[in-house]
Design goal:
Strand order of the largest sheet: 4-3-49-42-46
Shape: globular
Largest sheet: 5 strands, mixed
Distance between the termini: 64 Å
Strand content: 35-45%
Structural class: mainly beta
CATH topology of one domain: Methylamine Dehydrogenase, Chain H
Helix content: under 10%
């Protein structure tokens, strides 16, 4: 490569070798080297002679592969004896007992320190000497620590990074330590390093990861140092505790490190540090209180955060050309994402942008995982993938406390990995469960790299720990003795040796574990990972620094076409740190960024690899957006080349900016005049009466209804109350609504379970059933009338009821009512029976003919009447939580369940609301049914079969629940031993330990109690469309984005007036439970139909709908009578949001008038007809009362 004293290119190692069965060394690849300067056309150069081979520039000759044979991919683990990289980061027990934090390990950094064109390796050590290995080529390395001037022992070396900090073109070396700060070694250019005195970097702190970038835009590379802490609670510390003003406090030396909060000792760390480069490699500290850093509101910080910093990475997260900074912090000290405001100023990202973070954040990586052009990122934690460790390891939980004036629970922490998909408006959706990445063992370092060269970035994760200090059995044994007593110290934690993991990117944010297939499964404690091209074949190889085990060196053996890119920046930033490189093909754009340090304790070689996924004759180009704002564009990219691209002078390339955003109008616009303060949701927590079921039933929410209550010709909106009375919002025209009447009546309830419309005695109004928190309280069907008064129509059995649906089921001209049964508080999943109430001259009575079939419908969350079989009468379809979707076909007023006959017997899910719509426009009603989705805690068990066991007999007045999942050939517990022990009185006698419990099947655990349990089983978590086809039902999972959050209320209408039915989904569930956490990656999702059965999600920047909390009831109506269907959405804690449809196309509103007993012709079916041909076309629509999630849409339809 070009270097200061070597103006011509040096040789690349141009061969990749693999050992075949016959032990024949086969040459199969020669890599061409190409230099690109100032955006000029690429010209091949002549490769110079290497110590192993002589060659001119040649394209890679791939090996002969038989038809349908797969090219090799993955890694080949190289032995230390073969490579010469013999290094072990040793740490003895005596040292780790002095400071448990030393077990965090040491780093590795890769780069060409001697300018010979080959990538070298530096490995840091906690004790003993760090080591430098020079790359001799052909996978041979020589230790050159002494020759390079680095043989002096640096105690407790942690992080390490090669970077040119003085701008002379040579890689310098930066090392962080536990206890003595950061040391910088300048490269003299003759393969030697010299310690650079820099007093500002000296520190007594426990420093960890180093991150570098041009933070202030002055052209040189600045430094951020994460500081963790020298000591921890787990180290033998003697804390001084005194009572001050009646409260215990830590005083003395460790008073800033430990605080007693709510009776618990809480640990804090040390402030991180930002240093600005003076251009000569001298770093000067930046004050936390000097205006450089500000909080989410833009207020300058008064002091630095005492976080437990483990790693940090500079990346341009928002693509504005400025390096932002993500910092991973351990335990309750939250992660920080600092957005660069320009000129070296940083501001914390707004709280709503990231809704959840990992509790024990170790490492981070950033990249465009789904190839949508925006950067996503992943943070790793410590949750295990294995059943045994899930049962035996304690799940760490963040205390609900304040730190530095902020509420931690404003952004709750979860004890698992987090994966963030970048959305519009600088927001992120957390999708680790959906991606299959929530649990990767005690993880240190996530690394994004395209291992198989298919164009998508895969993920490597190093994990393991010398001590499993989460082991519940050991913790329990140690708790029996005084802290630091000889008896306690004699009980050692077991080692945690788990295999490293590799995940192949399958597209659409799905990942498949492929560690074994790719040869990446070492169970050594793997702290630090760095990437570099060790054999100059253009792909990225891997080096891992392990604790008390030899370093791991992996050759990447993938053989697909690739392009490698290195940058030649201007003095001050010679490696192009912070530049974004994009390879642009017809299929998609791949983009990566050159980073400085930022790996956990480590740093990569400044080279990036891109796959060539399209035929060689297709046009391809590389674009580089430099940190300076300049642009380089390289046309005519060839496969299997390395491009070294030089940063242009400002006169050569045009400075690039983000440019104006597209200002197109969104489909919906929120009406601000609707009173959102009405809907308070402070309710009793149902978990108090059922501790074994972690979901608070009060979060299931309430309903909305559109109805012309005052008979003035426009639609009014009824809102089911939270802790307040329900409201009727009167439509006053011009997008104004008046809170006309708060419903009067009973005070012992909280809102309505659902709404439906049916006239009683020629009086318009709503039918509703109150929600009851007391399962023994009497209930009733009420009629809510226009003046706000309510009338009790029919008494109902004590219990809980959900959605309502109305239709003329017996064809006698009046409207009958279905009432869905649900679980009373404290008794889930035991359910009240559903009811079918026949209308007998205005009185509703139980339909005895259908009582048996209807009463079997339990835990009903959605119900509609529609003519499913097109025979002219109303069939009943229901969705059940922890149950099935059921079709009850109406045969002359008698309902018969026909699930098996239409192929739906396996659709068992945590179903919520449902709605019908003719999505494929064949005249038959199809269904959209909401479910829990695939981004919840269920995903971590890696199966699609779950059971909920429940018993009504073990404990009086409480239903006991026990969750399990199917693993291979047996059912295993999800509920841990400590939960089971609350009701299984002899659990501590039956199970010798948590490990013993982990080895038992569900049948063994329940034992003699098994006969007292019943169970429900589910096998589907997707939100789906069910297409009603002539030969049965076809299940189609909705767009992946629809699976990122639980869905509750579907509403169907042609929102954009293109003639096809669309769907809006209300989303999100906040369980208030640490185990389940928030499931809130949704914002309210609009999906546009194509008339062929597909629905495509559109972002909130196009829909205009972005709701941050839990949404429940939804309903649609053309409230302003402009021929466009508007939308109302009920958000828990916020009330009703009203969205006005502003599509360019205007439709025709159709309403029907019928007899007094059914004035709106509920049950009628409408479809457009071509008057010339007589053919029907477009979607068929039905007039329904009761749909979606307990709500009521307008009884009018709009046709495009």
């Amino acid at each position: 490569l070009e270097s200061p004293n070597q103006p011509k290119c040096a040789d690349l190692m141009s061969y990749k070798r693999r050992r075949l069965e016959l032990n024949i060394s086969v040459l199969y690849g020669i890599l061409q080297l190409v230099f690109i300067d100032n955006g000029s056309t690429a010209q091949p150069s002549t490769a110079l002679t290497s110590s192993a081979f002589e060659s001119t520039a040649l394209a890679i000759n791939s090996p002969r592969v038989k038809k349908n044979e797969t090219l090799p991919q993955g890694f080949d683990l190289k032995s230390g004896a073969a490579t010469g990289i013999t290094f072990t980061n040793r740490l003895n027990t005596d040292l780790s007992e002095k400071s448990f934090n030393l077990l965090n390990g040491s780093g590795v950094t890769l780069g060409d320190y001697d300018g010979d064109g080959r990538c070298d390796v530096f490995l840091a050590a906690m004790s003993g000497k760090n080591k430098l290995f020079r790359n001799l080529g052909n996978w041979k390395f020589k230790e050159t620590t002494r020759e390079a001037g680095l043989d002096r022992i640096i105690p407790y070396s942690s992080g390490a990074v090669f970077e040119d900090i003085d701008g002379d073109g040579w890689l310098d070396l930066i090392i962080s330590t536990f206890g003595s700060g950061v040391r910088t070694y300048l490269n003299s250019g003759n393969s030697r390093f010299k310690l650079l005195g820099n007093p500002a970097l000296e520190s007594p702190f426990g420093s960890a990861t180093l991150a570098l970038a041009d933070g202030d835009g002055d052209g040189d590379i600045d430094l951020y140092v994460t500081n963790y802490g020298l000591h921890t609670i787990q180290t033998k510390l003697k804390l001084r505790i005194r009572t001050v003003r009646g409260k215990p406090r830590v005083v003395g030396r460790y008073r800033d490190y430990y605080k007693i909060i709510n009776g618990k000792l809480v640990e804090y760390g040390e402030p991180d540090a930002l240093f600005l480069n003076n251009g000569q490699g001298i770093f000067e500290p930046v004050s936390w209180s000097g205006g450089t850093f500000s909080d989410e509101e833009g207020k300058p910080l008064a002091h630095g955060y005492r976080d437990l910093g483990l790693s940090a990475m500079f990346r341009d997260m928002n693509h504005d050309g400025l390096p932002d900074l993500y910092v991973c912090n351990d335990f309750q000290t939250p992660d920080r994402l600092w957005i660069n405001q320009g000129f070296g100023k940083f501001r914390l990202i707004k709280r709503s942008a990231i809704k959840v973070s990992s509790y024990s954040s170790m490492g981070v990586d950033v990249g465009d995982l789904n190839r949508d052009g925006m950067d996503d990122f992943m943070v790793v934690d410590m949750l295990s993938r294995t059943h045994r460790l899930k049962m035996t390891q304690r799940v760490e939980a963040a205390p609900s406390i304040q730190t530095t004036g902020e509420q931690i629970w404003d952004r709750p922490q979860v004890s698992r990995n987090t994966v963030y998909v970048s959305e519009d408006h600088g927001q992120y959706a957390e999708v680790a469960h959906y991606a299959g990445l929530s649990a990767t063992e005690w993880s240190w370092a996530p690394v994004f790299m395209d291992v198989d060269l298919d164009g998508y970035e895969d993920i490597l994760i190093g994990n393991g720990h010398a001590q499993d200090n989460l082991d519940k059995d050991t913790l329990q044994s140690r708790s029996q003795f005084p802290n630091d007593s000889p008896q306690q110290l004699a009980i050692a934690f077991p080692a945690l040796k788990t295999p490293n993991l590799a995940f192949r990117n399958m597209g659409q944010m799905r990942f498949k574990e492929t560690g074994s297939a790719w040869g990446f499964e070492s169970n050594q404690v793997s702290n630090a990972i760095a990437l570099g091209d060790l054999d100059n074949d253009g792909d990225q190889d891997v080096v891992i620094n392990c604790l008390n085990a030899p370093a791991l060196v992996y050759e990447n053996i993938s053989q697909r076409a690739r392009v490698a890119v290195r940058l030649k920046g201007r003095p001050g930033n010679t490696r192009g740190i912070g530049a974004r490189i994009s390879l642009i093909e017809a299929a998609f754009t791949q983009s990566q960024e050159i980073i400085g340090g930022g790996r956990y304790l480590s740093g990569d070689q400044a080279q990036r690899t891109f796959a060539l996924t399209r035929p060689s004759n297709e046009k391809k180009r590389i674009e580089v957006r430099w940190r300076s704002g300049l642009l380089s564009t390289i046309q005519g990219i060839e496969a299997n080349h390395l491009y070294v691209i030089h940063e242009p002078e400002s006169s050569v390339a045009k400075r690039q900016g983000e440019g104006p955003k597209d200002a197109r109008a969104t489909l919906f616009r929120e009406v601000s005049s609707v009173n959102k303060q009405h809907h308070a949701t402070v309710k009793p927590d149902s978990r108090q009466s059922q501790p074994t079921w972690p979901l608070d039933r009060s979060t299931l929410g309430e309903a909305l209804a559109w109805i012309d209550m005052d008979t003035d010709g426009d639609e009014d909106l009824a809102v089911s109350g939270g802790s307040k009375a329900s409201a009727w919002l009167t439509n006053k025209g011009k997008e104004n609504f008046e809170n006309k009447i708060e419903r009067k009546g009973m005070k012992s309830r909280s809102g309505e379970s659902g709404f439906a419309s049916a006239p009683l005695n020629n009086s318009p109004g709503l039918l509703a059933i109150p929600q009851q928190s007391d399962p023994t309280a009497a209930n009733a069907l009420i009629h809510w009338m226009a003046d706000g008064a309510e009338k009790e129509i029919t008494k109902l059995p004590a219990g809980a009821y959900g959605p309502l649906a109305v239709s003329d089921v017996d064809n006698d001209g009046d409207l009958d009512l279905f009432v869905g049964g649900q679980s009373p508080w404290g008794n889930f999943p035991v359910s009240s029976d559903s009811l079918l109430l026949k209308n007998e001259h205005g009185d509703f009575e139980v339909d005895e003919t259908n009582a048996t079939s209807i009463s079997r419908l339990h835990n009903i969350q959605g119900a509609i009447f529609c003519d499913w079989d097109l025979d002219g009468d109303s069939d009943l379809i229901t969705s059940s939580e922890w149950g099935k979707i059921r079709w009850l076909i109406n045969e002359k007023g008698t309902f018969n369940e026909q699930n098996k006959g239409i192929g739906s017997e396996k659709f068992r899910g945590i179903w919520q609301g449902l709605a019908s719509g003719d999505f494929n426009e064949d005249g038959r009603p199809d269904l959209v049914v909401c479910n829990r989705g695939e981004n919840t805690q269920w995903a971590q068990w890696r199966t699609d079969r779950f059971r909920l066991y429940y018993s009504k007999t073990i404990r009086k007045h409480e239903t006991i629940t026990f969750r399990s999942y199917f693993n291979r050939d047996q059912w295993l517990p999800i509920s841990p031993l400590e939960d089971v022990s609350t009701w299984l009185t002899d659990a501590n006698m039956r199970f010798a330990s948590h490990a013993d419990y982990a080895s038992r099947s569900q049948e063994e655990i329940l034992g003699d109690f098994l006969h007292e349990f019943e169970y429900l089983e589910i096998d589907t978590l997707e939100t789906v469309i069910l297409l009603n086809l002539p030969n049965g039902i076809e299940k189609v999972a909705l767009n992946p984005v629809a699976q990122w959050a639980p869905c509750f209320g579907p509403t169907v209408a042609d929102f954009n007036n293109d003639g096809h039915e669309d769907v809006f989904l209300s989303q999100n569930l906040d369980t208030g439970n640490h185990e389940w956490g928030r499931m809130d990656a949704g914002h309210g999702l609009l999906l546009l139909g194509d008339g062929e059965g597909s629905l495509n999600a559109i972002p909130s920047t196009a829909s205009g709908i972005r709701l941050k909390n839990e949404q429940r009831g939804t309903a649609t109506a053309d409230f302003n009578q402009d021929g466009k269907m508007d939308l109302a959405v009920l958000e828990r804690g916020e009330g009703a949001h009203l969205f006005v449809n502003q599509t360019e196309h205007t439709g025709v509103t159709v309403s029907l008038e019928g007899p007094s007993a059914n004035p709106h012709c509920i049950g009628a079916r409408l479809q457009k007809i071509n008057l010339q041909t007589g053919n029907v076309y477009g979607p068929a629509k039905e007039i329904q009362s009761g749909s979606g999630y307990r709500s009521l849409n307008s009884l009018k339809h709009v046709f495009a």
